[in-house]
């Protein structure tokens, strides 16, 4: 999930000044945006786990918060993943395929299998036990990516489509075609194809953003204009979330499980919230600085490790707190989020110290 622009220069530089030459440039705002995004992923899954476990505050804000987060947090990651594909096409399909195999396919099968085995071993302690272990493992190949790992599976698919389409129709054409496909796609589709059709427009939007060079110019946006745009985005996000809840009624929504909330968030009616949320995060990331930038960039640079391991960390802590200690205070959400972010960071640090970070995709 790196985002360097290939060329000459000091490889791996974190804060190298932007140049018009082909120096390797790591854009701080992209790291920060990924940091915000991965924090939202962890918060969303922590909320979902507590909801499915029957734990929520009496004035239930868990469900609306999860709905708002889910409207845009995964579209955000597809957008960010598409930013640098137009430039990476210069390395040819083989280079992109090699990156996908090592950076997406290998961690998908490694940690997806580990997570399935751990959940199977946990039995009734988890919210969704794995009872058919052979079926769960074979389902990884074609039909049923485990939990959060659908993102890696679908990202491989949309990258493959984009590598084929971009040279033929360009970034603008690919965005247009992806929107048409989203509107006209038959329903239902197999889950990975359904997610692919759903997320391809956001990936294509990232490709267009990157192809036009807007990624590099974004930090120069005036602060007042950025603040006004972010406020407008927050209003759209809040209004769309309220509208989604209203479409099913609060009485019905208050009984929704995490999967139902995600389904509502990713309905076509949530498109405005997705666009608003992506825009707000990008604007915030482009304007932040100092310690906040450092913290968000740290999370962003380790977003893959956090994505791979956070479910194990969150679910493990929730099982300990609820089933072994009997603590069911909804505010355990704070501890779950801290563990979901901090645990994978520690694991990645240990893997680097042991020299196995690449092998473990951390």
TrEMBL record:
<dbReference type="Pfam" id="PF01757">
    <property type="entry name" value="Acyl_transf_3"/>
</dbReference>
<feature type="domain" description="Acyltransferase 3">
    <location>
        <begin position="28"/>
        <end position="348"/>
    </location>
</feature>
<feature type="transmembrane region" description="Helical">
    <location>
        <begin position="36"/>
        <end position="55"/>
    </location>
</feature>
<keyword id="KW-0472">Membrane</keyword>
<keyword id="KW-1133">Transmembrane helix</keyword>
<keyword id="KW-0808">Transferase</keyword>
<comment type="similarity">
    <text>Belongs to the acyltransferase 3 family.</text>
</comment>
<feature type="transmembrane region" description="Helical">
    <location>
        <begin position="67"/>
        <end position="85"/>
    </location>
</feature>
<feature type="transmembrane region" description="Helical">
    <location>
        <begin position="191"/>
        <end position="214"/>
    </location>
</feature>
<protein>
    <submittedName>
        <fullName>Acyltransferase</fullName>
    </submittedName>
</protein>
<feature type="transmembrane region" description="Helical">
    <location>
        <begin position="305"/>
        <end position="325"/>
    </location>
</feature>
<feature type="transmembrane region" description="Helical">
    <location>
        <begin position="226"/>
        <end position="250"/>
    </location>
</feature>
<keyword id="KW-0812">Transmembrane</keyword>
<dbReference type="InterPro" id="IPR002656">
    <property type="entry name" value="Acyl_transf_3_dom"/>
</dbReference>
<feature type="transmembrane region" description="Helical">
    <location>
        <begin position="331"/>
        <end position="351"/>
    </location>
</feature>
<keyword id="KW-1003">Cell membrane</keyword>
<dbReference type="GO" id="GO:0016413">
    <property type="term" value="F:O-acetyltransferase activity"/>
</dbReference>
<dbReference type="GO" id="GO:0005886">
    <property type="term" value="C:plasma membrane"/>
</dbReference>
<keyword id="KW-0012">Acyltransferase</keyword>
<feature type="transmembrane region" description="Helical">
    <location>
        <begin position="105"/>
        <end position="128"/>
    </location>
</feature>
<dbReference type="GO" id="GO:0009246">
    <property type="term" value="P:enterobacterial common antigen biosynthetic process"/>
</dbReference>
<feature type="transmembrane region" description="Helical">
    <location>
        <begin position="270"/>
        <end position="293"/>
    </location>
</feature>
């Amino acid at each position: 999930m790196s985002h360097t622009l290939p060329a000459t220069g000091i490889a791996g530089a974190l804060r190298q000044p932007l140049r018009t030459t082909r120096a390797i440039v790591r854009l701080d705002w992209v790291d920060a945006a990924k940091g915000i995004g991965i924090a939202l992923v962890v918060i969303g899954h922590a909320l979902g786990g507590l909801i499915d476990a029957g734990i929520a505050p009496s004035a239930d804000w868990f469900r609306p918060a999860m709905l708002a987060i889910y409207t845009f947090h995964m579209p955000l990651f597809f957008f960010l993943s598409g930013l640098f594909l137009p430039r990476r096409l210069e390395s040819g399909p083989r280079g992109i395929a090699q990156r996908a195999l090592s950076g997406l396919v290998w961690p998908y099968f490694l940690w997806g299998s580990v997570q399935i085995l751990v959940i199977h071993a946990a039995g009734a302690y988890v919210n969704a036990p794995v009872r058919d272990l052979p079926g769960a493992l074979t389902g990884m190949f074609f039909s049923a990516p485990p939990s959060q790992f659908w993102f890696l599976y679908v990202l491989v698919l949309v990258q493959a489509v984009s590598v084929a389409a971009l040279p033929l129709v360009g970034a603008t054409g690919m965005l247009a075609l992806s929107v048409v496909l989203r509107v006209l796609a038959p329903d239902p589709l197999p889950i990975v194809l359904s997610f692919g059709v759903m997320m391809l427009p956001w990936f294509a939007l990232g490709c267009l953003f990157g192809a036009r060079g807007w990624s590099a110019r974004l930090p120069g946006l005036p602060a007042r204009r950025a603040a006004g745009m972010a406020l407008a985005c927050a209003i759209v996000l809040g209004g769309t979330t309220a509208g989604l809840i209203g479409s099913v009624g609060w009485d019905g929504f208050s009984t929704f499980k995490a999967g139902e909330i995600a389904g509502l968030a990713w309905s076509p009616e949530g498109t405005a919230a997705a666009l608003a949320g992506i825009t707000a995060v990008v604007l915030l990331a482009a304007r932040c600085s100092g310690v906040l930038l450092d913290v968000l960039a740290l999370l962003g640079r380790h977003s893959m490790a956090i994505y791979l391991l956070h479910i194990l960390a969150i679910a493990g802590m929730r099982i300990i707190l609820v089933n072994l200690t009997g603590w069911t205070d909804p505010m355990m959400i704070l501890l779950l989020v801290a563990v979901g972010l901090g645990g994978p960071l520690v694991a990645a640090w240990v893997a680097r110290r042991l020299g196995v970070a690449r092998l473990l995709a951390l």
